[in-house]
Amino acid sequence: MRQDDLYINKIDWISIIIYAALVIIGWFNIYAAVFDEQNAKSIFDLSINSGQQLVRIGAAVIMILLIMVADYRLYENLSLILYGLFLILLIITPFLGKEVNGQILSVGFGSVRIQPAEFAKFATALALAKFMERPSFDLSQVKYQLQALAIIMIPVILIMLQPDTGTAMVFFAFFIMLYREGMPQKYYILALTMIAVSLLALGIENNLYLVFAIAAAISIMIFLGKKKLSRIISFVVIGLLMIGYVYSLDYVVSKLPQHQQNRIMVLFNPDLDPLGVGWNVTQSKIAIGSGGFLGKGYLEGTQTKFDFVPEQHTDFIFCTLGEEFGWAGSLVVIILFCSLLIRLVFLAERQKTRFSRVYGYCVISILLFHFMVNIAMTIGLFPVVGIPLPFFSYGGSSLWSFTILLFIFIKLDSHRIQMLGRMN
């Protein structure tokens, strides 16, 4: 048996099977989302979304084969080149890209177009893995923290210029990986505190109540701790900064584009404008709720048939699943996603090199963020930010970028023993 054959046998088929299951279920749901009972067409018809998505699935299979036959060292060697390439594409997108709904997201020729922001995710993951594989790289030191932050923030800034806030937010998922690799916990405590304060400040009509709560919490911590002057001053400064942050939020939100302000307000008050800005989420929740336990049946969803939910084949694809397959069908898909994520954590932890482990956790972070935010968005627990459900939503750039992201890691994992030998 050739040496290459030995590594083919080490491919993680469990991850591949789960991936295939999600892609196939997603494809059937894309057909259901655009199904027209009066003018029914075959699921394979290239004039409708399901037929076009099948072509994209075929292209994804070709990409998988190319990834798996390529030398595993190629991804590490080309990591910084790919990162630079997609940064260039992000720079030129606002100038040469195609505008859709006020956003310039895609570049290409004719009908063949891609969204560089989607592919920048795996390129950034490779660049982070390349930078962090150095033995001297230590996230407990500020200079290395700033290096990692710079790699993440450069594409974020370029994507915001398109503007595409939803995709830009995804890059903050890399902080999940950074936590695993040793980023100090204090940053995460601060971030969670700011998120909690933000939610309370936006959800409470009178900020004075929150100010009193902050003052009370600071007073209790001072009273219960050691009465050192430096400690007391630190807590007082923190309290004043938090109060200042609370009162600055209204100003910050007022400077956001109107549609983003509306989405934030609808999150806290779903009945604010049910026929306007709240329409998507309201109809999505109706569709999911009407599915009950077992759903209405495949192609029987009334919310779907009558196009009550806009973008149902892309960002709101999960509500099609909820309406037609109910709680049980939704649970099956959630279990598949969770199983894939748990499996990837297992694969990441068994890697023999830091490059592969860091890249693996980047894959996990991105998939987890998309999975959680997309579903939370469709049930009204998160503002509508327009990010797809991995392997499920309609679109070539989305499917291909997630496929490349995942299968590069599967390829690296299949060569983990060989990579260790190269290091030694």
Automatic annotation (TrEMBL):
PROSITE patterns: FTSW_RODA_SPOVE. Keywords: Cell membrane, Cell shape, Cell wall biogenesis/degradation, Glycosyltransferase, Membrane, Peptidoglycan synthesis, Transferase, Transmembrane, Transmembrane helix. It comes from the Bacteria. Coiled coil: none annotated. It is found in: Membrane. PANTHER family: CELL CYCLE PROTEIN, PEPTIDOGLYCAN GLYCOSYLTRANSFERASE MRDB. This is Cell wall polymerase. The gene is rodA.
